[in-house]
Amino acid sequence: MGILLGILTALTWGGSDFLARFTTERMGTLRTLLYMQLIGFILLTIALPWLGGWGHLADGSGWQPWAWGVLAGCVNAFSTLGLYRSFEVGKMAVVAPLSASYPALTVTLSLLSGEHLSAIRAAGILCTMLGVLLVAGGEKAPDANNTDAVRRSGKGIGWALASALGFGVLFWLLVLRVIPRVGAPQTVWMIRMTCTVIAAAMILIARQPIRLPRNSRLFSLGMGAGDTSAFVLSNRAMQLEQVAVVSVLGSLYGAVTVALAAVVLREHVSRWQCVGIAAIFFGIYLMSR
């Protein structure tokens, strides 16, 4: 069941992040972050009574669950900010899988924390991570006549790597410290609340427009619902399956985003990137054994 939830996480995150490409172009990174988090916060607040209620946030556990939730929210806010900025300025077929390389850090931290993997699952993780690297590094030079591809070529890589670093730490923290003390859906609620406050504060400090444009409302709704659902699925999967496996499965959102970019945006996928995508799915098969 944990493997299935991990795959559903990747599909949902991949679709949500693909929508981010359009919203970041229309209203910028900060407003995209704000309204994705705010919509997710509202939807999850409504759904929380059917997802186990308030959990440790309201059972007399004191301030610690709230503190862990705020910490997770801060890490997520700046990781997502880097991710969306990379989507805004870079080529999605490159920056999406590059940002999805965060399991390299999560797996390392998990192994250092005492988690053990079977040989076949370790091989699956290595195969999947190799596939992510091939997808990220297999881009061909853009056609000189394609002005958008030329403009985006090589851009956003630093933002994507910063995002991967943040998410790598976040998912290790979630399974080791945050979810046991807060609860799976309750952690996502705390993350959404914290990120909403941080994004709104950054917009006000930067004196940027805060209104949600009419032409971005449906995209923002889809992103908020999709990203929040993916986080809930991922947190639940980490309660059922090894964190190293779930984090790698969740990172496959990069492959989903690349596929959508190739089909919808006509972004070229090279032969090496196709090999990488195949390696990713073979890795999934090994991890499910």
Let me know the largest β-sheet. Answer: none
- Helix and strand content put the structural class at mainly alpha
Q: What is the approximate shape?
A: globular
Strand content: under 5%
Arithmetic mean pLDDT: 82
Descriptive account of the structure:
- The two termini are 12 Å apart.
- The protein contains 12 helices and no strands.
- 78% of the residues lie in helices and 0% in strands.
- About 3% of the residues have low confidence.
- Helix 1 packs across helix 8, helix 2 packs antiparallel against helix 7 and helix 3 packs antiparallel against helix 11.
- It is mostly helical and 289 residues long.
List keywords for this structure.
289 residues
In short:
The chain is 78% helix and 0% strand. The protein has twelve helices and no strands.
Task: Set down the secondary structure blueprint.
Blueprint: H1 2-47, H2 64-89, H3 92-99, H4 103-112, H5 119-137, H6 147-152, H7 157-182, H8 184-206, H9 217-240, H10 243-250, H11 253-264, H12 271-287
Helix pairs in contact: 1-2, 1-8, 1-9, 1-10, 1-11, 2-7, 2-8, 3-5, 3-7, 3-11, 4-7, 4-10, 5-12, 8-9, 9-10
